[in-house]
Specification:
By secondary structure, the chain is of the alpha+beta class. Helix content is 68%, strand content 12%. The chain is elongated, with a radius of gyration of 25 Å.
Length: 307
Amino acid sequence: MPYIKATQTAAKPMAYSETDTKLNASAGLASVGVAALLVALKLWALWQTGALSVAASLADSAVDLLISAGGLAAILYAAKPADDDHAFGHSSAEDLAALGQSLVILASATLIGYSAIHRLMAPEPHPLSAQGAGIVVMGISALLTGGLIWWQSRVARATGNKVVAADRLHYLGDLLPTLGAIGALWVSRAFGWGQIDSMVALIAAALMIAGALRIGSGAWNALMDRAAPNEVIDGIAKIAREHPGVRGFHDLKTRTAGAQIFVNLHIELDGDQTLEQAHDIGAALKRKILIAYPQTDVIIHKDVWRG
């Protein structure tokens, strides 16, 4: 079908407002600050206790620090508007950061898992010390993590930033190793069961590996221009199908980059209407798609309907 020369494009839907950008940056800075403080606290707790479960939690927090720093950089860089060298924006920075972070998580989890298995196979359990101090430090860590999750939840709801939302989910998962370390230290102190420490560390390592594979897979798929989720594609198709004035559509194509979804859509319109009428139909359709899916960048091509 021949094209009407005009196309309908979205006006940078991912460009956050100044307020939203500040909120997203505040969540990223809070994440970096809390992670750095947790690393320092857990380093001291590990030195005092020698507990492998604390080491697992420490490694998790060290990875968190890297992830949070990368996430903050990605938030700031991805928020930059499109320019001559990056016509589709900078949102792929989020995927590059996530892929690198997943590799770091895998390496850390593998080391913790190996150490846990080595201790479990040892003839004598590894002795722990200063469990009370370790419990206090890990309790403070849990409170700090909970406060960070609360703030990230508020920011994610206010701005819809998926990097902040993903970081929030990551820290929710971090609560388990922290609480597990508290439990291991308490059991060791109360009953002398030192092996529980290695068991908790092994569980934490398994969870870290599962999370790394999930994050890495999502980042890899986005870098390889994988299409948007099926429910998003079906939703856009439904909007186009039911939009007044649209006689049909074809070549609906999508790809993802970071938190952004790029949409390319051909719609079929009556050939006897004016260019202004065709433009208005396309503009109204674009607005509907952006309202339903705010994280999209939409290009609509208009074809002549040959019914």
